[in-house]
Each structure stands twice: as C-alpha cells, then as structure tokens.
Specification:
hydrolase activity; 7-stranded mixed β-sheet; NUDIX hydrolase; mainly beta; 4 helices; NUDIX_hydrolase_CS; hydrolase; NUDIX_hydrolase_dom
C-alpha cells in the first residue's frame, strides 16, 4: 500500500491511500493542493508513505479515465490482465565526471535506451537504501547524499518481458545523489536489466537516446536536456 500525506507547514491537511494507477500530484490537485515530495519511507515490508509539502491550489485536474495499452494487446488479453504495481527508486547521480546513466538491456521492453541508475525496492527496503544498492549493482559506483527529488507514475496495460499481460502501475521515486570518488562504471549485476553504464557530461546529454522519464527527472534536478 502507498499512503500519501500532505503537510502545510507542520499541519497535516490530507492523507489517503494511492489507488492503483493513480498519480499523487493529480490526486492532491483534486483535493485542492499542489506541492513537492519531501520524503518516501517504508512503514512495513509492504507499505510506503510519501509525504508532500503542499500549498493551496485552485487548479482543476481530473484523473484520466483512459488507460493506454500496447498495440499488441488483444481483447482476449484484456479479459485476463493481471494488476501489478512496481515501486522503484532511481537517482540523478552527479560527480566530477558528469551524470551517471545506464543502458537498458534486452531483458526490458526498452532495450538500447539510456536510463538513470535504479530499480525496484526489495521488501522492507527504504528507497534511499535501494538507490545506494542499485547504483552499486548497475555501475560499481558508491553514492552519498541521497535525497528525494520527485515522484513520477505511469499507468498502462502491456506485455511484460515474461509474456504476461499486466495492468501496470509504475511508481518511480527519483532522487539526487553524489558520487565523491567516480571510477569507470562496471555493471556488476550481469544478466539483469542493465547492459552498460557510463558517465556523460551534462552538455552531451542531448546526444544520448534517453528513456522517456529521464528528461523530466533531469530537469527537476536542474539538468535540462538541450
């Protein structure tokens, strides 16, 4: 379960469970609030609470009633679709050598695109700990100063690499982190979702074919892709 807590100053003004497929910012807007996430903490092996610092908002936002699906999904597939929610933590990792990026492997549906290092949370694992672990597994780098940056969600129906058709709710917790002693990246978790890793200077990011969520995460960190 993902719980959303909204604080205006020190006062709690909203608390709700995030429904499958829902986006926290949109749900806050429907309740008259806008703001930024300030923490994401595991309360139990299965539960996560995301806290937002909010301010009153008069914007009117309606949750989308249409769930997109991959073109190869048939009506027969839709009749037996399996709901699946994945909470993952990623990081915009900075160092003297640039921004750390990872290439998605053939085990994913976006092979060849470059992503930010990160991945799914283990049961009971705190998001910040997941960032440290995933960055090391995917690149061999050690990071510090892990701080929550933004939360992005995506909801669609598609076919997983296993062939199973899923009603997929991706909840992505993006962080910033620092690598004080960068080295040549090495993928330690061979055979996983990462096939390669490298440092890229901020001025060269425009020449890299990035996964869809990466430009927004970089912009949130003050690294616009030109």
């Amino acid at each position: 379960m993902i719980g959303i807590v909204a604080l205006q100053g020190n006062r709690e003004v909203a608390r709700f469970e995030l429904a499958h497929g829902a986006d926290p910012a949109t749900e806050l807007a429907t309740r008259g609030w806008s703001g930024e996430p300030v923490s994401a903490v595991r309360d139990s092996p299965e539960d996560l609470t995301i806290t937002y610092a909010v301010r009153a908002s008069h914007a009117t936002v309606a949750p989308s009633a249409v769930v997109p699906h991959d073109e190869d999904v048939t009506d027969e597939d839709l009749a037996k679709v399996v709901p699946y929610q994945r909470i993952a933590a990623y990081a915009v990792v900075r160092s003297s050598r640039g921004i750390l990026v990872t290439e998605l492997s053939a085990r994913t549906n976006a092979a060849g695109l470059w992503n930010l290092p990160g991945g799914g949370l283990d049961p009971g694992e705190q998001p910040s700990d997941a960032v440290v672990r995933e960055v090391h597994e995917e690149t061999g780098q050690h990071v510090t100063d892990v701080t929550l940056l933004t939360v992005m969600t995506r909801h669609w129906v598609g076919r997983a690499p296993s062939g199973r058709v899923e009603d997929f709710h991706a909840v992505r917790l993006f962080h910033t982190a620092t690598c004080p002693e960068p080295t040549d990246p090495v993928v330690l978790d061979v055979g996983g979702s990462t096939s390669a890793a490298r440092w890229v200077h901020e001025t060269e990011l425009a020449s890299v074919t990035l996964a869809s969520s990466v430009p927004d995460a970089l912009a949130a960190a003050g690294v616009p892709v030109r």
